[in-house]
Specification:
Distance between the termini: 24 Å
Number of helices: 3
Structural class: alpha+beta
Radius of gyration: 16 Å
Length: 86
């Protein structure tokens, strides 16, 4: 088993801090690192995160305007914020 040092984990996490959220490569890096899957249902969005333990999945209720925007090809979710605390 490899020993993980707290300062190394902190440094690795900080490497994500300065990325440009509008950059597609940076978005892909975040998704590949932290997200296992995303499911879009009629009335909710379910996201499974890449870590063990409780609360590694969240569900976000969707109102009709968000679903309409997705169906129109407008991929931005204006006003929707997801936060994960652990």
């Amino acid at each position: 088993m490899t020993e993980v040092v707290k300062k190394d984990v902190a440094a690795w996490l900080e490497s994500f801090r300065d990325g440009d959220i509008k950059d597609k490569k940076y978005q892909a890096k975040l998704f590949d690192t932290f997200v296992i899957s995303v499911y879009l249902y009629d009335k909710k969005l379910k996201i499974a995160f890449n870590f063990s333990g409780k609360k590694n999945t969240i569900s976000v209720p969707l109102d009709a305007s968000i679903v309409d925007n997705i169906e129109k090809g407008e991929t931005h979710l204006t006003g929707v914020r997801l936060a994960l605390f652990w």
